[in-house]
Specification:
Helix content is 50%, strand content 12%. The protein is of the alpha+beta class and 263 residues long.
């Protein structure tokens, strides 16, 4: 970035109250300046860890999200590492004391594409499955692999939001299986296809995953399948409950097991 670009960024941050700012710079074009997130209290992590212990799944444990300079350092490092693996993430342009700047990754949210329904919506969902397979094949992982963090760009799906690093507390195969849980939890309930089509698309992608990841997901499926009995009404319970119910229903229908992925 040029001095003029940085001056434009600092001028916008000086008058903006938002943490994430889209800024048009004279030399680098549209960029995102991201300030540090305040540190979070420990209560949420305690609740998540209690749930992980209850169902016996360490990959569901809370990943440290310290906020402040530590969180910024984590995201900067993760952006650099993912870019180095060939994963489509925003280009890191500048790191400052209390903010950093990335190139604006133009594209609509994958959620919007899936919500359109029909053939296009189902294909958009499958593009997310393919992206996870591709990222994992590169030996990488995303962490916050919710559909809201996938952007539909002309070059394919791009990914954002890397403020934590699950490898601090879990193995690579657990981190990659965790990506699948996050993606399925945030998308399956949006689909308007019958369960057989959804299952076939999911299982075909699982056949391309490493056995260690399939084993982690199979274990998760056996522990979480009971959640399919949760209420289906989003209005009464909220989308988080509906998302868990839909993902668990997929696990139940897919009868996931490492030896059964090659179908």
């Amino acid at each position: 970035m040029t001095d003029a670009d940085l001056a434009a960024v600092r001028a916008q941050l000086a008058v903006s109250r938002t943490r994430v700012c889209l800024i048009d710079t004279p030399g680098s074009g549209a960029v995102i300046a991201k300030r540090q997130r305040p540190s979070r209290g420990p209560w949420r992590a305690h609740a998540v860890n209690a749930l992980a212990r209850l169902v016996g799944l360490s990959l569901l444990q809370a990943v440290p999200a310290p906020g402040g300079a530590k969180a910024q350092a984590i995201e900067v490092a993760r952006l650099a590492a993912l870019a180095g693996e060939g994963v489509r993430v925003p280009e890191l342009l500048h790191v400052d004391v209390d903010f950093f700047v990335i190139r604006h990754l133009e594209g609509a949210s994958l959620v919007q594409a899936i919500e359109k329904g029909g053939t296009g919506g189902f294909e958009a969902w499958q593009a997310g499955l393919d992206t996870l397979v591709e990222v994992h094949a590169r030996g990488a992982y995303l962490s916050q692999a919710f559909a809201r963090n996938f952007l539909v760009t002309p070059a394919g799906l791009g990914m954002i939001d890397f403020e934590d690093d699950p490898r601090q507390v879990m193995s690579l195969e657990e981190a990659q299986a965790r990506d699948w849980l996050a993606y399925l939890h945030s998308t399956v309930w949006l689909l308007d296809r019958d369960s057989a089509a959804i299952r076939a698309a999911f299982v075909s992608r699982m056949a391309q995953e490493r056995p260690e990841v399939r084993a982690q997901l199979a274990r998760s499926a056996s522990r979480l399948a009971f959640l399919r009995h949760l209420p289906r009404s989003r209005r009464a319970w909220g989308r988080e409950v509906v998302g868990m119910q839909a993902a668990a229903s997929l696990f139940h229908l897919s009868a996931i097991a490492p030896a059964k992925m090659h179908v």
